[in-house]
Amino acid sequence: MFRKKVIWEQLTGERITEDIIGRLEEMFEDFPQVRNRYLSAMEKLTKTQGTATATEMDAINSQLQSLVLFSGMLGLKANLDHFIDPVARNFLDVDTEVYLREETSHRLPEYKNSKRLRDEFFNRLSPEEKEIYDAVMEYTCYLETVAPKLAHYYGYLLGNELLPQVFPGYHPDTLQTARYEAMLSQYWGNVKTDLRKGCDSNGSITV
Predict the structure, then answer these.
(1) Whole-model pTM above 0.90?
(2) Which of 40, 107, 117, 122 registers the highest number of CB atoms within 10 A of its CB?
(3) Looking at residue 202, what is its pLDDT?
(4) Cα–Cα–Cα angle for 44, 46, 50, nearest 5°?
(5) What is the pLDDT of residues 65-99, one digit of tens each?
(6) What's the rounded mean pLDDT across residues 6-23?
(7) CA torsion, ordered 147, 106, 84, 188, to nearest 10 deg
(8) Mean pLDDT of all residues belonging to the chain
């Protein structure tokens, strides 16, 4: 059983960055190497940029948190919209860029502010340092590609548990949920099994 409180905490809590990273390490065999290259690059840049590197890392985390919260809320909304009008165009039938509203997500205040800080950091780098920074770009690209998709799915699952309590007559569409799982499994393997690995003894998802 997925517990709404725990999923909600994953979408909004301070642990969200480490939780998403942990899931990526489990799901993608190349991600640990990508992360190690990122950490190594940051260590090298710290020697020349000092505390500005810590600000850069905080900005990366803030961008991730902004994307995850936004995508999670969209997943919850997609669940409710499907219940209200099940014959409308299904979000599973459109490109992920459409249902994740990527252009809008990049205009969110926290995301834009973090991008500004990151641009300032990058512009201070020497040509040699920018070569080192390539590993940072690889890492953040990985996060921004996968994390919103996971968050949208978690938000959809949250809806299955939360909406019956706040929306009269609501009931989860088990076929739609299964279809969503199957779609993600085509990209990432057995999503349902992977998620179960993150459950505690009470069956609460910990991501």
Answers:
(1) no
(2) 117
(3) 30
(4) 155
(5) 899 889 989 999 999 999 999 988 889 988 888 88
(6) 66
(7) -20
(8) 84
What are the helix (H) ranges across the chain? 4-12, 16-27, 31-49, 52-84, 96-99, 102-105, 109-123, 127-166, 174-188, 191-197
Residue 164: count of CB within 10 angstroms of its CB: 14
Residue 29 tokens read as 């065999």
What three-state secondary structure class fits 199? strand
Distance CA 131, CA 125 (A): 9
Residue 92 near residue 149, CB atoms below 8 Å: no
What is the C-alpha radius of gyration for the chain, rounded to an integer number of angstroms?
18
Query: From CA 121, how far away is CA 56, in angstroms rounded?
Result: 7
Measured CA distances, 17 to 63, 195, 197 (Å): 10, 17, 18
* Count of all residues that appear for the chain in the document: 207
- For 205, the 3-state DSSP assignment is strand
